[in-house]
Structure formats: C-alpha cells, structure tokens
Amino acid sequence: MPEQTPAEPTTSPAANIGVVGLAVMGSNLARNLASREGNTVAVYNRSRSKTDELVAEHPEAEFVPAFSYEEFAASLQKPRTAIIMVKAGGPTDAVIDSLMDVFEPGDIIIDGGNSLFTDTIRREKAVRERGFNFVGMGVSGGEEGALLGPSLMPGGPDEAWVTLGPILRSIAAVAEGEPCVTHVGHDGAGHFVKMVHNGIEYADMQLIAEAYDLIRRGTGKSPAEIADVFAEWNRGELESYLIEITAEVLRQTDAATGQPLVDVVVDEAGAKGTGAWTVQTALDLGVPVSGIAEATFARSLSSHREQRDVSGGLPGPAEDAFTVADADAFIEQVRLALYASKIVAYSQGFDEIRAGAAQYGWTIDLGAISRIWRGGCIIRAQFLNRIADAYAAEPELPVLLTAPYFVEALGRAQDAWRDIVATAAAAGIPSPAFSSSLAYYDGLRARRLPAALIQGQRDFFGAHTYKRIDKPGTFHTLWSADRTEVEAEDTH
Ligand SMILES: NC(=O)c1ccc[n+]([C@@H]2O[C@H](COP(=O)([O-])OP(=O)(O)OC[C@H]3O[C@@H](n4cnc5c(N)ncnc54)[C@H](OP(=O)(O)O)[C@@H]3O)[C@@H](O)[C@H]2O)c1
C-alpha cells in the first residue's frame, strides 16, 4: 500500500477584525466587537501586559491575542481589517508603518483615535499610494460608548466601507432603530466631523455651565436643587445626555467634606485640544463659530489662575449682590436662553462641516450626521431629530437656524434670551457663550452691518477698495488727495 502523504495543516486565520492599542478605548471597542455575532477579534498592544490582562479578564470574548505585528497579521482573514486605538500623533504613524510592513495591498487600516483631519488626509494619501485602504474614523462616546455602542464617523474610500460597513453597523449605538454610523465622506471627512462634534460639545457644556451659574447666583438654590431643575429640563426639548449628567454631577456630595462635589472641584477646565482645532479650522475656513470659540476661550480663561488671582479686585458689581424676585420665572428664562444659544452652536457647527466639505471636496449628508449623533455620543440629544428634519426638508439649507422649527423656537425664546444676557451683564456674571450666540443671531438678522464702515477704514489706510450698493464695480476714495472716488481693481 502506498504511503499516505499527511494533509497540510489548515491553519486559516481565525479573526475577521483586529484591534491595535488596548488602553481603555481599544479594549472596550474590542470587547464590543467580540460580543457581536460573527466576529472573532484579534488583539495586539505594544506592551504585552495589556493584552494578557484583557484576554485573562474576558475569556467570554474569545480574543485571538497577538504579541508581534507578524502574529497579528497572520491571525487576520483577508482583506485584513485592523482598528488602531492608540495615542493620536506620532504613535498612530508608528503603528500604521508597522502594519504596512506586515499587511498586504487591499488590507484595511482604520485609525479610530482622535486624529487631526489634516493628518488623516496625509496618511490616507500615503497609505493608499502603497496599495492599502486607510480609514480615519471618529469615535465618540468615551469608554462606555466604545463598550456598549459608540457613534462612529468613518471617512476613507468606498472600497473599505463595503467590508467595514456591516462590522461598524453591528457595534454602533442604535438610535430609533438606526445604527449611529454612516460613511461620512472620503479621506479626512470622518475625523473632520468628529472634530466639529467635539467643538459643539464644548459649546453645549459651556452653555449648561453658564445656565447653572446664573441660576445659582440669581436664586441662591443649592447644587442639589439645581440638579432637580436640570432633571426637569431633561424631560422637555432640552433632553440630552449632557443635561442628564449635569443633574448627576450637581447632585453628587463629596464624601470627604460633605459639600456638594461641584464646590470642592477646582474651577479650571481642562481641554485635550479638539475644541481649539475646531476653532482654528473655522478661522481658516472663514466660518464664524463664535459659540464654540467662546466656550474654548472660557476654558482657557478659567485655567489662567495667575491672571485670575490678580484680577479679583477689578471694579464691577459685587458677587453676592444679584438676586431675582421670581426664581421660577428666571429659571424658565434661563432655559429658553440655553435652548436658543444651543440652536446657534449647532447651526455654527453644521456650517463648519458644510464649509469643510466644500473646501476638501467631500460629499457630506448633514442630515445623516445629525442622525448618527442621536445615540452613543456625548452630544446625543432629542434636539438632533429636529436638525435631521430640517435637512430632510431642505438638504441645501444655507443656515440651519432658519429652518421653520428653529425660527419658531428662537421666536419663542428671544425675549428671554435678551433679558438673560442683559441681566448677566448688569450683574457682572460672565456668560460669554450666551451673549456671543445672541450677538451672532443679531448679526445674521441685521439688514445693514457696520462692516460698511470697516470697508471705509480699510480703504482709507490700505487702499483695500470697496463695492457700492448702487452700482457694480470696485472703488477707492483718494483719501490723501482730493477725496474723490475712482474705479479700482478689487484687492479685498
Ligand atoms: N478616552 C476617550 O474618551 C476617547 C474618546 C474618543 C477617542 N479617543 C481616542 O482613542 C485613542 C485611544 O484612547 P485611550 O484613552 O484608550 O488611550 P491613550 O491613552 O490615548 O493611548 C494609550 C495606548 O496607546 C498605545 N501607544 C502609545 N504610544 C504608542 C506607540 N508609539 N506605538 C504603539 N502603541 C502606542 C499604548 O500602548 P502601551 O500600552 O504599550 O503604552 C496604549 O495602548 C486616542 O487617540 C484617543 O484620543 C479617546
């Protein structure tokens, strides 16, 4: 009998998706992936201990651990699909380079970190030139979102979306039956939208903080009593995750002192930079995102302790001099001012996305963006349905706050909004986001802006020229001669 040749061992790769970077976000995302039907998840971390810990603590996930990039690549089915969840910047570049050394053309590399969208555009180009697919993906929802269902904002090529779409739909949060993920657009579109999401988050948080401050200083209510106000607001049109957690934070008592926690926390707000990116990008695009900018600057101001220490004696109304006669009526006014300012913040954020899409050649469905923010992410809110409705009715809406629903809401709120901004100014209570939002609103409404005077000044000192309302062309006044007007070349 002829000798039988033993069959080749068939060791087909076990995993359909991999995660690199197993700190809090990566490990939770890996667990989320593993919990979904049909997924087998390969995991790799630079330092081995995190991989060992994750695998030991979660046997139910049946992870496929890898301890080198080669092992990681060998454990993945083709096209290999790997999500990177490491520190943004240099570490992300290092991991991409290592993956390209062991992956093959056609494989998909996803950066789920908080990368700057211009880095993503650069990386996408470099990775594509080597034949791989690269997807920059915004992930929102913090560690809980990563584990239970985040809002996902992937960019990148259509080809990658074919493989990635079903996987991402399976792990995303679900809002009103829809998974909170959409293919945002090409290359850096996903990270751009995530950046603006974070900018809006800054504005929303600052507005809520201003509302709390006004109520506390105007009514003398305790943080726990104000928690009840926010809990009540969370049952109406302001219903959102941020309002909900505000009530929780205000209700928290410090175990060590018995004081409200909010009174023992140092009043200096930190930032990781995405708010600043949103504002810097908006400045480059020429988009006024004043609410987001004020929120970002308010955090900066709060953190300049050395300046605040020497400024406490500056003249102004006494801190304890402000009380309102009718607390309930005042609280309702603050609620309306908050809602109106929030509409402005979102309108400005969507404006920035529109401008970014035009500048970078992305096709972004603004209605879809508002829908994927309804679940999983930090700014999830009932209100996003109204934005989705507005874009469904008019996809090319030039200014979100001119949609009929928002016009009605602003009409209802504007008297209270003006009163609150005026009251805060008179009482010396800083309310930069409330007041800048109102100024933006009035700027948009104004038939004539003093920009005409600025054009006159620019023409005076720099011959920058101006246009006239009554005839076409570009003009310059001979300011240092006889002050007659001449036609000129448009120099802006
Ligand atoms: N935390 C959040 O709420 C949140 C929300 C959305 C998005 N994000 C983004 O998600 C990403 C991960 O966040 P995170 O908080 O989980 O972790 P992180 O603290 O930002 O990063 C730690 C991870 O990066 C790895 N790492 C650092 N330098 C590396 C290098 N040169 N090569 C390979 N790996 C390197 C670390 O590996 P070692 O263990 O070996 O040090 C560790 O796995 C970040 O981009 C973050 O901005 C975070």
TrEMBL record:
Domain of life of the source: Bacteria
GO biological process entries: D-gluconate metabolic process; pentose-phosphate shunt
Record keywords, A-Z: Gluconate utilization, NADP, Oxidoreductase, Pentose shunt
Residues that coordinate or bind NADP(+): G21, L22, A23, V24, M25, G26, N45, R46, S47, V86, K87, A88, N114
The EC number(s) this enzyme carries: 1.1.1.44
Entry keyword NADP: yes
Protein family (similarity comment): Belongs to the 6-phosphogluconate dehydrogenase family.
Primary role: Catalyzes the oxidative decarboxylation of 6-phosphogluconate to ribulose 5-phosphate and CO(2), with concomitant reduction of NADP to NADPH.
Protein's UniProt name: 6-phosphogluconate dehydrogenase, decarboxylating
The organism of origin for this protein: Microbacterium dextranolyticum
